[in-house]
Amino acid sequence: MSLARKTSAVWLATLLSLAARPAFAQADERALKAAYLFNFIQFTQWPVPPEEPFHLCVLGRTPLDDQLARLEGKQVLNGLHITVRRVGPRDALGGCHALYVDDSQRAQADEVLNRLAGTAVLTITDGDGLADKGMMIEIHKRELRLGFEVNLRVARRANLNFSARMLKLASYVAGGL
After folding, report:
1. What is the pLDDT of residues 1-31, one digit of tens each?
2. Which of 23, 105, 106, 151 sees the fewest Cβ atoms within 10 Å?
3. pTM of this structure
């Protein structure tokens, strides 16, 4: 395992232990969600390694915009730099390596997911119940704690693989291990 992956593994474990503590302020919760997104990217393997830059697409405007902007230029996947790209529900999604759909954009989720079906685009949301509708990873808040669920069935159809460590930290994995 590369040094970057080991560092990310430590970061993910630390992040998740912090998330287990109750009562975060809104800004802290948003920063934590952005950090989750960053780490989900780090622990995903694409069928064909993404090329520079890594496009993190964001559907519409979201409450996480300031925190997501801080991911711009950060390195993922052994040196690729993140570019945050805002997209609309009918925009071309070619070139997106990951797509974040905030709960505030849930009305557009079905349309976007239908267009992405089977493509190697990591889909992440914080919309409750959207993993059941086809998103790959859903960040949730239960009993004042952040956690996440994984829809492994959808990820496998897109030929994306997740680190076993990440899957062990998920509160629920649909589609089995």
Report:
1. 554 455 454 444 444 444 444 444 565 889 9
2. 23
3. 0.83
> Could you tell me which residues are beta bridge partners of residue 76?
80
In single-letter form, the type of residue at position 165 comes to R
Q: H helices within the chain, ranges in order? A: 3-19, 26-42, 65-69, 109-116, 152-157, 164-169
Neighbours of 113 (CB within 10 A): 20
Ranges of each domain in the chain? 3-174
Tokens 């999604």 -> residue:
93
Fold held by 3-174: Rossmann fold (3.40.50)
| Helix (H), strand (E) at residue 108 | none
